[in-house]
What we know:
Radius of gyration: 25 Å
CATH topology of the domain at 155-237: Serine Threonine Protein Phosphatase 5, Tetratricopeptide repeat
Protein name: Tetratricopeptide TPR_1 repeat-containing protein
Structural class: mainly alpha
Distance between the termini: 102 Å
Organism: Cyclobacterium amurskyense
Shape: elongated
CATH architecture of the domain at 155-237: Alpha Horseshoe
Helix content: over 70%
Keywords: Repeat, TPR repeat
InterPro entries: TPR-like_helical_dom_sf, TPR_rpt, Ycf3
Largest sheet: none
Number of strands: 0
Pfam families: TPR_1 (PF00515), TPR_11 (PF13414), TPR_8 (PF13181)
Amino acid sequence: MHKNIWSSIIALFLLVSCQPTSEELFEAGIGALEKQDFDTAIEHLNRLVENDTTHAPAWNARGVIFFQTGKWDDAIASFSRSIELDENNYKPFFNRGNVYMEKEEYKNALIDYNRANGLDFNQVDIYYNRGLALLGLEMYDDALIDFDKALHADPQQPQVLFNKAKALLGNNDPLNAIATLEELTKIDTRNGAAFYLLGVTEMSALGKKEEGCEHLQTALTLGYTQAKDWLDEFCKE
């Protein structure tokens, strides 16, 4: 009788001791996430938060998985839970802002990017993404400030330059927009969208047909098919 009880205790101890720790589950989840094995990643992280509901990084990582798989509301819920547990970490604010951007809820995105920036003002991505939110809100002056901050860290960022040009156009500054697009097309010679916007701006703002048509033709050659309409209407002899 005593032997059976002792055997049961040993078996229970072995069963409990073989259970992975929270950090082991977290590392396994992150490893799967990095390999884009989202099903395995969410399985590990769900198991973690079921046992440890206060593990803020796990909630943030769950949100990243939901973001990657297009489950916006689930992502927001997970990032919000991570923020409740640790409001001093910029990452879930930044990540939740990214979800709001996908939903085109620019005001909510801006609020989260502001919180993220207040917690870590050295994160360059925050400036660029906040610039996009401000661009969506047609707050062009503020957007330009953030794009310039992002470019200060790395002047040769095609997407930042492209959106800076859009903000300049929104701000009725075609000359600087053209200068920015010219800089961009030197850096990224296969950016069809940049050549298209450059050609359209040259023609519509400055009346430069020859230059504009040349850039529109380059855009079309690069596969930017929207250029064809402009070429057909304005560049045929």
